[in-house]
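Database export, one record per block. Field names are fixed; values are copied verbatim from the stored entry.
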Amino acid sequence: MPPPVTFADMYDCLLRHGPAQVVSSRDTPYTVEAKPIDGVPTIVGYPASGTVRIHEDCWGRPMTCEGTLTGGLLNGNPSLYHWYAEHCGRV
């Protein structure tokens, strides 16, 4: 099942209205922003330690191409999808 929002839509929304403040499914707060890393559009989540980098090719998947779980950002409350709906339209 595809994610309810495309990577491009989320990236653009984060550029215009971010950073986002979300809470993972394990109650970990994240700050999420859009930024190019080495010229590649990337959605980056910052928990208390470390980072989660999501690229277009792993958007909506349970794990990033770097082997990091993404469910916390996408399945928490409020999730990145909740933030998108509030700032850029319906999901």
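Remark 1: Residues 7-88 form one domain.
Remark 2: The longest strand covers residues 29-37.
End of record.
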